[in-house]
Amino acid sequence: MSVLTPMYPRSTKGELCGLFGNSRQAWYDSQKRHASTEMQEVFILKLIKELRKEHKRMGIEKLHLLIGPTLREHGIKFGRDKLYFLLGAHGLLVKRRKYRPATTNSNHIYRKYPNIVRDLKLERPGQLWVGDITYIRTELGFVYLSLITDAYSKKIVGWCLWPDLTSTGALNALRMAVDAEGAKEGLIHHSDRGIQYCCTDYVVFLEGAKIGISMTENGDPYENAVAERVNGILKDEYGLEATFANYLEANEAVKTAVHKYNNIRPHASCNYLVPAEAHKQTGELKKRWYKKDKQTGTKMGEGQQNDTVAHAFENAKVT
User: Fold this and answer.
1) Which of 40, 39, 87 minimizes the C-alpha distance to 63?
2) How far apart are CA 15 and CA 273, in angstroms?
3) Do residues 272 and 288 touch, judged by C-beta distance below 8 A?
4) What is the SS3 assignment for 276?
5) Which residues pair with 243 in a beta bridge?
6) Is the distance from CB of 55 to CB of 32 less than 8 angstroms?
7) How does pLDDT run across 249-293, given as a tens digit for each residue?
8) Facing residues of 259 across strands?
9) Higher pLDDT, 84 or 102
10) How far apart are CA 138 and CA 135, in angstroms?
11) What predicted TM-score, i.e. pTM, was given to this entire model?
12) C-beta separation of 274 from 263 below 8 A
């Protein structure tokens, strides 16, 4: 109408609306609806921006869930898909992060050890440690988190955040684990074949502490799935996926995340004990999930499950 009125100044709004088979009242009603929709969208965008201050990478599903009660209080009906298009139109969708720095370099001259834990049955803490390295973002670049996790209890027993991928970070995490836990007889250290774990300094420390050495053999992440899963939990559930201002801020966040992970989060694979409590146990820990038979797709009972480390690794994503 705003376009047609200047073009046909002698025509009334009723006449112009009639050209399109509508009444003047219908036009006024549509104007009111349009104004109301715009007001609702402004209100919703304000709610989203407030949430994003605390949850910078929260997705559409959770945002829609969180603003739902407020929208209902104001009598606003606004679906998830509509919210998606609204945020997209205003540049508020979370962009998927594409670049992930490589943390494993297995193309080196050092000896690569065989996997000796495939059929190892876990019966106590201090029997098998798994090591892995993941990246943490800061505004100044990437820093790298080395972790040592007890495969029996899922407790993080050693960690170190280091500014580069030299072996120093991994070695510091291992030293922390040995200082805190000691190296019990028969302890095995399992990791990928990255240069940090194969280099002379790391291997000499393991041998000096009389810790057995085991490594993945074919690059399959499931060969070290417990360690991979711990990385995922720390990032997805305890905020380490965020971008921190600097190394010191990231280090404090890691310290907090490790404490919460070890002392607050129960694990289905440890009879719903938190890792710190599971670490005090011995003997088989009851698993509160069921393994699916790969051929039939049906759930297997506890008596049918083979509780080897290999099976624990295959199911680590549901711990």
Assistant:
1) 87
2) 75
3) yes
4) helix
5) 137
6) no
7) 999 999 999 999 999 888 888 888 999 999 999 998 888 765 555
8) none
9) 84
10) 10
11) 0.61
12) yes
Residues 91-123 pLDDT 10s: 888 766 554 555 555 566 788 999 999 889 999
* Confidence band of 36 (pLDDT split at 50, 70, 90): low
Mind listing the domains of the chain with CATH numbers?
Answer: 4-89 (no CATH), 128-318 (3.30.420.10)
Closest by CA position to 278, among listed 312, 253, 310 = 312
pLDDT at 208: 96
Measured over the CA atoms of residue 297, residue 299, residue 300 and residue 305, the dihedral's sign is positive
Indicate the length of the chain as a whole number: 319
3-state secondary structure of 169: helix
Q: Which two tokens stand for residue 288?
A: 């509160």
Instruction: Please tell me the distance from the alpha carbon of residue 246 to that of residue 37, in angstroms, as a whole number.
Output: 42
Apex CA 126: angle with CA 124 and CA 129, to 5°?
Answer: 115
